[in-house]
Design brief:
UDP-glycosyltransferase, Rossmann fold, alpha/beta, 17 helices, 7-stranded parallel β-sheet, 45% helix, globular, 13 strands, 6-stranded parallel β-sheet
Amino acid sequence: MSKILFVNPGSTGHLNPTIALCKALVERGEEIVYYASDQYKDKFNHIDMEVRTLPTQPIIEAFTTFKPNNLYNVINGLLNTVDHIVPQILEEIQDEQYDYLIYDSMFGCGNIISQKLNIPTIASVTSFAHTKQTFDFLLNKFAEILSEDELKQADKNFNKLKEAVETKYDVRVPNRFEVMHNPGDLNLSYVMENFQINKELFDSDRYYFAGPSVKKPQPSEFVQNLDTSKPLIYISLGTVFNKNIGFFNKCIQALKDLNITVVTSVGEDKQLEDFDKIPNNFILKSYVPQMEVLEHTSLFITHAGMNSTNEAILSGVPMIAMPQSADQPVVAQQIENLNLGIQLNSEAVTPTDIKEAVKTMLDKQDEYKRNISKIIDNKQQQKPGFELAADRVIAFRDAHCKS
């Protein structure tokens, strides 16, 4: 048995894939101390591990100080969270011994903490992996759309933050890539290798694409009460971007007259009066058991969050991607590039556009499903992603840890 320090103060999309992984590791005898944002402290109640919390609100405030509307400011925001994460962790673990460190590749200051502990590291990667080469290419693309003044200010802020962190914590912050992606000795991705952009660039010794870290859903009354005799369309913008009432109303107008069943996840803070008149073929719910519903879904209208996209691929469901923010435009583009679905602009799209897209995709459903089947490789057919990930973590431990 080894002791793992797991640092992941990110949002639900960064945390959810690690839940099943942690359970699998604990079942194999690993001891885990997990740092998560305080709003998610109950996520691991069913697992025999210690959860310690980091303060959500100060971290968010620090991250958004530079208005994260471009990649340069996102990186500065991440570097600005260090003082709300690193001191607490280092103080609380100063008399503790750990065999290896797992951290979220974007959140959690993994590169800095790893320098202080000098133990083997695993980065938990919830979106597309990047090399420094691919990241620098992306960064240069963002530089092209910024004004000279914006770029100068971003550079000034980065250099000031970098110097402050290096001085205060006696560490190196080599470049923006290290801040944004925190590569570890092993980089464990929940993306399927065949969906990864530029997959040929990643060394199999350092990058492992386990695929979706989700458990097979248990049957519930929710699906039993659905009319699955007709094509089922599932609509969700995820847990963060589901406030787009205008978009949901466009879907209602578009699909109300079609001979389909439409299940829509709208989030907990919605009132029915916020929506247009709900047609008989629509079911609006604050919560939908997504993996279970996807098993019966003909077409998924999604924000193209990586977790939702992974789950749709795993379930063999074609997608209409309506990206909202973050990495979703890149995910949506890959969905379209691989012909697993199409992408539309959720703000500019009209009800007529949605209706025609749904009808066309239902007619070509078999073609999309064949393309999706090519993404799922043999190892994902044999074991769920969290088991594959746990296997790789244990192999890494045996190769790199002393005890």
